[in-house]
Amino acid sequence: MATEKTIIRTTCPRDCYDACGIAVVKAEDGRVKILGDPDHPVARGALCGKCAIAYNGAFLDPERRLTQPLRRRGPKGSGDFVAISWAEALGEIAARWRDIADRHGAGTIWHAHYTGTCSLLAGGFPQRFFNRLGAGEIEPDSICNAAGHEALDLTLGLSDCGFDPRTAASAASLFVWGANPSASAPHRHKHWLKESPGKVVVIDPVRHETAAAADLHLQLFPGSDAALAFALLHILDRAGKLDRRFIADHVLGWDEIAPAIARANPAWASAATGLDPADIERAAQLYGAGPALIWLGQGLQRQPQGGNIFRAIAMLPAATGNFSKPGAGLLFLNGARHRGIDGDYLEAAHLRKDSKPRLSHMDLAGHLENPEAARAFVTWNINVAASNPEQRRLRQGLEREDLFHVAIDSFATDTVDCADIVLPAASFLEFDDLVLSYFDLTLSPQIAALPPMGEALPNQEIFRRLAQAMDFRDPELFESDAAMLDRLCRQAGLADFAELRARGTIPHRAEIGIQFPDLRFPTPSGKIEIASERAQMRGYPRLPQSAPDPRPQPGKLRLLSPASPWLMNSSYHADPGIARKLGPERLILNAREAARRRIASGDRLLVGNATGSLIMIAEIADILPDGTALAHKSRWPKLDPQRANVNALNPGAKADMAESSAIHGIEIEIAHA
Ligand SMILES: Nc1nc2c(c(=O)[nH]1)N[C@H]1C(S)=C(S)[C@@H](COP(=O)(O)OP(=O)(O)OC[C@H]3O[C@@H](n4cnc5c(=O)[nH]c(N)nc54)[C@H](O)[C@@H]3O)O[C@H]1N2
Ligand SMILES: Nc1nc2c(c(=O)[nH]1)N[C@H]1C(S)=C(S)[C@@H](COP(=O)(O)OP(=O)(O)OC[C@H]3O[C@@H](n4cnc5c(=O)[nH]c(N)nc54)[C@H](O)[C@@H]3O)O[C@H]1N2
Ligand code: SF4
Ligand SMILES: [Mo]
User: Fold this and answer.
1) Across the chain, what does the average pLDDT equal?
2) Ligand 2 center–CA 421 separation, angstroms
3) Most buried one in 146, 153, 159, 673, CB count within 10 A?
4) Closest Cα to atom 3 of ligand 3
5) Cα gap 556→670, rounded to integer Å
6) What pairs with residue 5 in β-bridges?
């Protein structure tokens, strides 16, 4: 018998390029199905595999969700809690924070957060509270992409205004450089890349599905991309494909870099990168064949020289005039401010009275060892115990008895297990918000489809209640969701949130955007700065450098730990369906490396370095260059008997810029376990 169904359309707010439209289908009997919205331009009726499982599994399962405030009962880190009321939880937190702030300064209260949800209110509003409190902040982007931001900012004057993806219709070629859309942007892999008329070139050490489907895959050694960029410029110059007029008018420092480009011939680059010179020639030919797009992956800049690599690659559009016309440009990500959103309003930056104490995620583990500098810790939208470097050392810091730790999450992560007080966060299915894809230049509504589970609350409401418990009076801390959503929609050029709710995902502008249309670059010189005085002042080289990273010492392997297709960072591992897909922690090697070490698929390996060691199961797949290995990032440590994941091997080395993660630069040794 057919039952009446209600369909509510909303948007996936994960840290994902896609920002899929979702249809929440509610049957009369109360059953709920979370599906891809068939009418949504990106989703086209299908969620990715991971969300199809987790949104219909753990997200709807009160046994797996956090549904009540909790207070620690067992030893720190035990995950042993008792349920308490919101009033008790808020009262206790406020009393502790007030005491710490009065006696030691609010700067000894630290918060770490990232992109557990990327919707604007749930991701941004809590900052108002921390600004008012005067708390220290673990620099959010230092765990992910700060090096790339700094490098592009030095070169182009900004990093968050990439090409409009719709312009791919006019591109002769599309370079996917150090990103893996088949895992991290599945709908771009499935639709956008396939439907783009231009040739697709993938530059990646890993032959992932997007690489395998490309017209050309350059499988270079990790950390050698700057050498490749110099060689592409060398060949383009030789073929007369540089835009001299554009360089003269809009580029600073070409004369200074030209000698290094002249030296970067294909034979040299072949030795530096491990690529066939003919493939380098072919890639240059494709880049020079017409308007060209470069999609700069986030994985790419998580190399020890990630900032330099970005500066080197950004010379390509600069030297060929690949800006200010359809089908041309470069994209790292598209930020919300270019759709009118005022970040200072969202986060009420003016509520901060003193300068903000800041620290890189790379230094978090060491910082938590200092009981005077770090007295309290708040984690929200983040799972540091899974995602951060120096995992075992960090765990010890998190287990410090005298560190007063409040964790806010929807699931009982390893980080949550270490808290003193846990506050349950509502899921995106349970509140209204705004989602701005960081790829497409669109606006999307997140619409409450279900009531909050148990006593869970959206981040916004949690921080309004914390503000009240702290007796803060500033009206910004109590603004309602409805008022903020209307205001943000107006900033983006809409009448109000009701308009967005009615229209669903819409482009910010109807016409296809052109990158740097007036060729004014917000650098000090107004030009693209290949030679950068600002870089020099910050202690970086004046010019991009061409040298690749040294290869690992004999016997060692370079370990990549990119995104898994079955996880969203560490999110979703709580779902048993996802856990089955993941299986045990595996280390992928190519057949030659495996044979050399007499390793067979399924062997138990002891994988280690100076930071730590981990048992992993060998998997042989010819998707990697010699000298490298791969283990996917961010499994839940507590679901492994070793209570650790690949970040137990991560020393937290900083990239060359912005004290940002150099996670893809780790070296390991392996032996049979
Ligand atoms: N080895 C290795 N490690 C890596 C990386 C790598 O490439 N290799 N990549 C790094 C990168 S790029 C990143 S961005 C980080 C990401 O690392 P994290 O930011 O730690 O990401 P998640 O592990 O997904 O943790 C997000 C948490 O937010 C919670 N959450 C979701 N929605 C909400 C909400 O509305 N409210 C609250 N309060 N919580 C919510 C989720 O349940 C989840 O536990 O990991 C880094 N770690
Ligand atoms: N399914 C899924 N999707 C996700 C995430 C997830 O965890 N799972 N995480 C989200 C987040 S937080 C982020 S930041 C993005 C990350 O998504 P991506 O930008 O795709 O980043 P990664 O997965 O870290 O790495 C992408 C590719 O960079 C390559 N790479 C590593 N080193 C080098 C190098 O030296 N040179 C070149 N050319 N390539 C290199 C890796 O081999 C990998 O294939 O994905 C988001 N989407
Ligand atoms: S995580 Fe990405 S691919 Fe999956 S449903 Fe959400 S937006 Fe779509
Ligand atoms: Mo990230």
Assistant:
1) 98
2) 33
3) 146
4) 48
5) 8
6) 27
Return the ligand number nearest the Cα of 458. Answer: 1
Pocket of ligand 2 contains residue 548 by CB under 6 Å: no
Question: Which of 344, 263, 314 minimizes the C-alpha distance to 527?
Answer: 314
**529 contacts 150 by C-beta, under 8 angstroms:** no
One-letter amino acid of 202? V
The protein residue whose alpha carbon is closest to atom 1 in ligand 1 is: 633
What's the gap in Å between 387 CA and the centre of ligand 1? 6
C-alpha 662/C-alpha 653 separation (Å) is 6
Please check whether residue 493 is in contact with residue 503, taking contact to mean a CB–CB distance below 8 angstroms: no
The pLDDT-based confidence of 3 (bands split at 50, 70, 90) is low
Amino acid at 517: P
Task: Give the mean model confidence (pLDDT) for residues 481-499.
Answer: 98
Q: Report the atom number in ligand 3 closest to the C-alpha of 16.
A: 2
- Which of the 8 DSSP states describes residue 356? P
Q: Which two tokens stand for residue 133?
A: 């409190």
pLDDT at 207 over 60: yes
Number of other CB atoms surrounding residue 249 within 10 Å: 11
Q: Looking at the CA of 306, which ligand is closest?
A: 2
> How far is the C-alpha of 76 from the C-alpha of 418, rounded, in Å?
6
Q: Which residues contact 152 (CB under 8 A, 6 or more apart)?
A: 158, 159, 296, 310, 314, 332
- In 204-347, which ranges are E strands? 216-218, 251-252, 292-296, 329-331
Q: How far is ligand 1, taken at its centre, from the CA of residue 571, in Å?
A: 7
Give per-residue pLDDT as tens, 137-190. 999 999 999 999 999 999 999 999 999 999 999 999 999 999 999 999 999 999
pLDDT tier for residue 24 given thresholds of 50, 70 and 90: very high
| Closest C-alpha to ligand 1, atom 4 | 387
18 lines ligand 3 (CB under 6 A): yes
Question: What is the enclosing helix (H) or strand (E) of 88?
Answer: helix 86-104
Tokens of residue 429, six digits: 């299915």
Is 570's C-beta closer than 6 angstroms to any atom of ligand 1?
yes
Tell me, using a 6 A CB cutoff, whether residue 47 lines ligand 3.
yes
Q: What are phi and psi of 112, to 5 degrees?
A: -125, 135
* Cβ of 569 less than 6 Å from ligand 1: yes
Structure tokens at 58: 């753990």
Q: Is 53 in the pocket of ligand 3 (CB under 6 A)?
A: no
Helices 306-320, 225-238: inter-axial angle, 10-degree rounding: 20
665 CA to centre of ligand 4 in angstroms = 16
State the residue for tokens 């016409």: 511
Q: Is pLDDT at 2 greater than 80 in this prediction?
A: no
Rounded Cα distance, 24 and 128, in Å: 31
Which helix (DSSP H) or strand (DSSP E) does residue 445 occupy? strand 442-446
Reply yes or no on whether the pLDDT at 1 is more than 70. Answer: no
